[in-house]
Amino acid sequence: MSENVNPAELQKTCLYDRHVALQAKMSPFAGFMMPIQYDSITVEHNAVRQKVGMFDVSHMGEVFVEGPEAEKFVNWIFTNEIRGFEPGKVLYGMMCYPEGGVVDDLLVYREFAPEHFLLVVNAANIDKDFAWIEEHAKGFDCVVRNESPVWGQIAVQGPEAEKIVVEVLGLEKAAELGFYTFYDTEYQGKRLIVSRTGYTGEDGFELYTSPEGTVDLWDRLIAAGVQPCGLGCRDTLRFEAGLPLYGDELSADISPVMAGLGMFCKYDKDFIGKEALLAQKGGEIARKLVGVEIEDKAIPRAGYPVELEDGTEVGVVTTGYHSISLDKSICFALVDKAYAALDTPLWIRIRKKVFPGKVVKKRFYQTNYKK
Amino acid sequence: MSKIVEGLKYSESHEWVKVEDGVALVGVSDFAQKEMGDITYVDMPDVDDEVTAGEEFGALESVKAASDLISPVSGKVVAVNEELDEAPEKVNEDAYANWIIKVEMSDPSELDDLMDAEAYKAHIGE
User: Fold this and answer.
1) Which of A63, A81, A119, B36 has CA atoms 20 to 30 A from the CA of B23?
2) Residue B112: inside a domain, yes or no?
3) How confident is the model at residue A9 (pLDDT cuts 50, 70, 90)?
């Protein structure tokens, strides 16, 4: 996650001073100086799995689209189907290049006002995404606004997340939300979006509001004893839950079909990249993303080769850990499609040694989403 | 502040060496274990493997990252600390009490290229 960048060029989220005061280990990520961990990754990971934890995700990007042709436009750049999708709902999908590679993966919120949408994109891609969105919005009767700098965001995640947002923050309506739905309210005179979404495999909420409101929410959650969690465990949690990270499992070179995320692409509509993805779906792909489990405590890391028994290289690890919740060494790997079937034996080269393993389901951990 | 033990020799890559009866015990410093965070796996060589000063002989793995272990001395591995297979967290608990490998040195003069406690303290800037 760390990057070689000039510290002077790094952005700070509205919660930066809070992280420093908590003596978090800070590191550059996606152009922001972000907390990697406050205590230990294991402690923070387990807090989210067993109780509740919270993340500063203010670095994420918020792009608003509105106008008479907003739906038509969003449906053109987005792989998933937003027609017939009701106000108050959230949908996951991608924006793709015509060749099928991914510009970004994102959430689309259908707002309560007609023809209003919120697109939540990855921090590292805000500028690229907004340029892409603006460029493609030409010719549609809608306006697009990048409001990323004026929104903060906190993710409260874990089995006790509902109790916390209701009892500590007084957001009673949060309890009525189903997974991937949201409602609007106000906090300190500014809009607050309460969204039952997350990136951990647990139930939870993402709270979007002004930077000032975000700091206030954070302080109240800290006072209530909620464990602050850094990007370190955000990655271990999302990985166990089988969720991709843009740059690792999705990229300009890794399409949703290759990543096994074809269910988020709907082909009974037109969208940028549709033809290429349909061809890939029909078999025109070289590699597929799989889960691999190895029989050792050695840890497969991004970039390590995936081999056959005779040493032939057939793929590469994209993310790997010794899973905290499962106590197993597992990884995502991009492999030649001939070796992508479940239970296929594969070997992973970890430094000087080679460890046997097999293809397993990518959702390593049984997720606990609110129905 | 990281703990530094007097009487040990230290490498720039944060390994320590303690010589007992002509055999070099090699571990990592308290500074290194703190930098790594929770250690979840120690990748060690096999007994009788040759190690070379300045070259990698294994790795420490935390949840987040792998960090190469660089041998401060050359020679033959005569023992590996098998306790760390089952309990890698011992390196976090006491980095100096838990050696990783024992090396029969082929060139003990290499010890002169390492830092003493005072120089190592300056090296880590504490």
Assistant:
1) B36
2) no
3) confident
Distance (Å) from the alpha carbon of A77 to chain B's nearest alpha carbon: 35
Count: domains in chain B: 1
Which residues of chain B are within 8 Å of residue A235 when distances are taken between CB atoms?
64
Q: What is the CATH number of the domain that holds B63?
A: 2.40.50.100
Please answer whether residues A120 and A262 qualify as being in contact, where contact means their C-beta atoms are separated by less than 8 angstroms: no
Query: How confident is the prediction for chain A on average, in pLDDT?
Result: 96
- Could you tell me if A298 lies within 8 Å of chain B, comparing CB atoms? yes
Residue B109: alpha-carbon gap to chain centroid: 18
| A145-190 pLDDT per residue, tens | 999 999 999 999 999 999 999 999 999 999 999 999 999 999 999 9
Running DSSP on this structure, what letter comes out for residue A202?
Answer: B
Cα–Cα distance, B106 to B115 (Å, whole number) = 19
Please give the single-letter amino acid code of residue B52: T
Residue B62 in any domain: the answer is: yes
Q: How many helices (H) and strands (E) does chain A have?
A: 8, 19
Asked if residue B24 belongs to a domain, the reply is: no
CA distances from A258 to A92, A189, A234, A337 (A): 17, 45, 23, 9
- Which domain covers residue B86, as residue numbers? 30-98
Identify the bridge partners of residue A65 per DSSP, sorted by sequence position.
Answer: A117, A144
B9 within domain boundaries: no
Distance from C-alpha of A312 to C-alpha of A307, rounded to nearest angstrom? 5
> Does any CB of chain B come closer than 8 Å to the CB of residue A42?
yes
Task: Please name the residue that has the structure tokens 């005179």.
Answer: A189
With a cut of 80, say whether residue A6 has pLDDT above it: no
pLDDT in tens, A32-87: 999 999 989 999 999 999 999 999 999 999 999 999 999 999 999 999 999 999 99
- Chain B CB within 8 Å of residue A321 CB: yes
CA-based nearest residue to B94, from B106, B102, B83: B83
Specify whether the CB–CB gap between A202 and A157 falls below 8 A: yes
